[in-house]
Amino acid sequence: MQLATRAVVTAALAAAVAVAGYVGGLAVTIAAALLAVAVAVGWPALASLPFRPGSSAVIGLGGVGAVLAVHAVPDQPYLRELPVVFATAILLAFVNEVLRRDGRLRLLDSVAGTVTGTLLAVAAAGWVAISRTPGGEPLVVAGALALAVGSAVVALPLHGWLGSIATTAAAGGAGALVGAVLAGVDTLAGLLLGFAVGVLVASLHVLFDRLPSLERRLPAVAAVALPVTVTGILVYVVGRVLVG
């Protein structure tokens, strides 16, 4: 999958999260769970893990379990069960290695890669947490639209620092626009949130988009979903700081 195609797909996923945030309720939970599944499907191939079915199962269970745990918590703090879910997933990563029958080659790489993938999938629960926070729905919309615009700019033929600056500026502008339009988020908060999202998008672009494995389907699935999942926890943290 080419860079432009991946960027457009990421933008579409982010726009879908923005719509889910506007609708609210169960829609955000479903969107976050699907993002966690996408990471689980593609991350083992992207990270070249040796036992991909087992790693996908651990990442999927950890990511979806985190989303459901945050959805089920009756009151704040909504992330209080997240450490338990992640710790359980780490234990499952070791169980995954015990079940291997391939000589357990690259054991350390396998455990580290599985735990890292689980952490990335668990980050999707941030979307659910901020959507459940009083006044948090506009933050979901602002963060997701900033991500969509920033990801779309990545598809443009801009290179080096120029591309990073354009991505960050576009995401910040989108966040500010949402802050100016929607009640509950002021323009400055939207700008700062969009700026943070833009920095994240630009950083992930530099980190992943030159990997040769992204030409294949499964690694590309993880690459297009990763910015959306990681943005979930970023929006939660920045949103709580800016809005409360």
TrEMBL record:
Superkingdom of the organism of origin: Bacteria
Record has Nucleotide-binding as a keyword: no
UniProt keyword annotations, A-Z: Membrane, Transmembrane, Transmembrane helix
Transmembrane segments: 30-49, 56-73, 79-99, 111-130, 136-156, 161-182, 188-208, 220-243
Name of the protein: Permease
Species this chain originates from: Cellulomonas fulva
